[in-house]
Amino acid sequence: DILVDGKVCDCDIVVTCQVGDPVPLQVKLTNWSKRSVGPFALTVVPYQDYQNGVHNYDLQDAITFVGSNTFHIDTVKPTKDSVYVGALLFLYTGDFYLNIKFHEDNSSRELPLSWLCLPSVHIRAMEPVA
C-alpha cells in the first residue's frame, strides 16, 4: 500500500501537492506468504517523464527527501507488515513520478539481487494558492 499526503495511491491517480510543503509518504509491505521474508531494502527514486521515452532522474534541485530515500526492512513474518514513513519536499512545480523498489538485502547470497517494483506514483507539484 502506498499513501501520499494521506491518500491511497495507485497508477491511475495523480496526487497534487504544493511547492514548499512537506508531503508525507508511507509505503507498507505486507507479507501474504506462509514463511518469513527479508531482509529487504526499500528505495524511493523520483523522476520526471518527458513522454518521449526519456526519464530525468537528476532532480536534486527540484525534490528533496525529509529523511532518507532508502529504508532497511528486516524480516517480515507471515501476515505481518513493515511500514516506511518519510516525506518529500518539492522545490519547483511540475509532474513528478516515484519509482518504489524493494530488493533483497542479503549479502550472503551468491545470486544477483532480485527486485520488486511497484507501479509508479504520479505527483503534481503546484504553486501555493494565495
From TrEMBL:
It comes from Pomatostomus ruficeps. Residues 16-125 form the Trs120/TRAPPC9 fourth Ig-like domain. GO terms for cellular component: trans-Golgi network. Transmembrane segments: none annotated. This is TPPC9 protein.
